[in-house]
């Protein structure tokens, strides 16, 4: 886990300055101990219920992290042919524990998923059902299907990551569900198997999950009465984490235990007596606190009343502050208790005013050359990184016990230019 020992930030048992010496900055650094602990807590919260954890690959699709999660027992939730390909590379055996979500599956993606014999297609429209039925017939495969229903439940989160309202592009209206299930059941190559939902991301109040599952439970009963064999309920992902740690690094595991068990209760209670196999698609809750982004301070400068810390990490490395106004903790890699605290904007070298990692943030004073760590970036950090301004993407290192493993090397300029011939 991330912690200070003698004023120096460590990842599991390794000091960050030593890792930076070897791998450079900006650097994504992951703690396998944190990942293991959080997976254990999440999975433990559903003990006693038939369930599978299908880790949402989009949160962090690094192959080594996926392998580690597969070793813990996870299946996967994918939303593209690319993510499906990653599952087949990281843990081929887990394709049968993989669900495929997304509003715009292409024919090529559908074919690949049919050939891979995945567990479940979460179908999001009538058009997709028709294409899936046609392709399954053509390839002589059977597609197990759930419809992703839109429960019309508001979830308090950033509007860009809320998905469960009627006006969003996701899922099919519950009111249309019985007609669509009837239509699906008519195809010999479709096996109607479940109901699926996902209402959004970074949801910290569990009430919307409960409200959603109440609607899902009603639908399961109704569909069973109509003769459909509903085995699976896919509750989606969305459980949030606490990004605003006052003390220490990241959410303590005890806090997560409490939240995971509240979440499990909210999901399970409405489903009581239905005897379904529950599928869960957590992303952030498992991986966010398992990662930090280490960056070196390049310059300090003052423009008017503003003090800027200019770092070698930018919005192309971590987009969340610019895109969602996300507030990631920022701590010095080497702590000096004598330092004062001041208000800074932390910005990167990219030519955009939106290129900031923090705004008007009270931080411990820092000098050029020193290292800072951005916290809770294991989810949607590297996954959202780009090459904007022709910046090579950062390296990723996974710490396992006393060993650090480079799990994605830093990109080079030739990597960036390669597709252009
Ligand atoms: N299942 C489905 C169908 C999803 O769309 C998502 C996330 C998940 C599971 C996993 O959700 P999680 O447990 O990680 O909340 N880029 C944004 C988050 C976008 C989430 C998209 N869907 C961010 O950085 O906050």
TrEMBL record:
Enzyme class: lyase
InterPro entries with a match to the protein in the record: Ala_racemase/Decarboxylase_C (IPR009006), DAP_deCOOHase_LysA (IPR002986), De-COase2_CS (IPR022657), De-COase2_N (IPR022644), Orn/DAP/Arg_de-COase (IPR000183), PLP-binding_barrel (IPR029066)
Biological processes per GO annotation: lysine biosynthetic process via diaminopimelate
Cofactors, names only: pyridoxal 5'-phosphate
Gene3D superfamilies documented for this protein: Alanine racemase, Lyase, Ornithine Decarboxylase, Chain A, domain 1
Residue ranges occupied by any Orn/DAP/Arg decarboxylase 2 N-terminal domain in the UniProt entry: 35-288
EC number: 4.1.1.20
PROSITE patterns named in the record: ODR_DC_2_2
Residues that, per the record, bind pyridoxal 5'-phosphate: 238, 281-284, 380
Keywords recorded for this protein, A-Z: Amino-acid biosynthesis, Decarboxylase, Lyase, Lysine biosynthesis, Pyridoxal phosphate
HAMAP family assigned to the protein according to its UniProt record, in alphabetical order: LysA
Quaternary data: Homodimer.
PANTHER family: DIAMINOPIMELATE DECARBOXYLASE, GROUP IV DECARBOXYLASE
Main function: Specifically catalyzes the decarboxylation of meso-diaminopimelate (meso-DAP) to L-lysine.
Protein name: Diaminopimelate decarboxylase
Organism: Candidatus Korobacter versatilis
Lineage, top ranks: Bacteria, Pseudomonadati, Acidobacteriota, Terriglobia, Terriglobales
Gene (UniProt): lysA
